[in-house]
């Protein structure tokens, strides 16, 4: 009976997931149709803005900090933006980093358009949201284009000064991304001090905020909250900050500038010796592609930083891999604990549990091996260290002092 219920529930969940995926696909298709409209090149700013919805015009208004325009109807707002975007365009260019500057430069060299097949929708929307460039379809090709008026302004402004500012912005953005990759969350003043130290210059807070705000919208790697700056993977910023504050004697781990610039890249993986050991162990048992390995390592690193119990990580791996034997699971668990104890963690300000273990025994200890359920067909629970069956009323092998059913056996 229970098996039938489980099957019915599973079927219902799969059907719900399929419906959700279909709904998401339909929304994406609708958004694509809205974005990619046929246009003729060259394009005036007024024509580009007339193609936008009122919500899209409002996004430009908000991003450029244009006040007293929120009550205007679409036609009136379009007229105002036609005049105000050129006035603000120098300020817009001064928040760009190298990737967006190069794109603008290519549009200028092409007298307006560049191919947009490999640019994500979110990046297209960000460029449009700042009035930098607009999407369209020309000769059956998706393109991004700059209106004529903005091309003329870029020609006047482009030069050594802008290039210097773009390099500075690029460094600010990459260092911020790298810091948050390892620390998770940082207050504004703490971040400012770190950027000052790393660049050797006093950072203008207002300029820095404007640059990071535009970069957050474009790259979607960091977010702003009441707690300051946070990596987009962070689920509970307050919890991380509370954990960090619980260790006042522990300073932020000191990363080199080069380390932080590497960590700034999207989907960066910190390939530590223990992580490499873990991937080699998996490859001894499974024929996995580089992409599959990277996906699993990214997920495990995220799970560690999101405070997922090792049993949860084992279950995740079980959902991706078929475990051949209990002996293999024992070895897998040991390797996973090594990975856990040597992974840099947000709550530890970029340190690993192993690094802090000796000096901080009363706060933290490397995790012991945890029990593991050998798939759905085997209902026995085992202590990985001894192989003995664990009763639900027995003490939990994780060392918490609680009964198993109240701890890892939930």
UniProtKB/TrEMBL annotation:
Query: Which InterPro entries does the annotation name?
Result: SEC_C_motif (IPR004027)
Q: Known Gene3D superfamilies for this protein?
A: 3.10.450.50
Which domain of life does the UniProt lineage start with?
Answer: Bacteria
PANTHER family the record matches:
ADENYLATE CYCLASE-ASSOCIATED CAP C-TERMINAL DOMAIN-CONTAINING PROTEIN, UPF0225 PROTEIN SCO1677
What name goes with this protein? SEC-C motif-containing protein
Output the lineage of the source organism: Bacteria, Bacillati, Bacillota, Clostridia, Eubacteriales
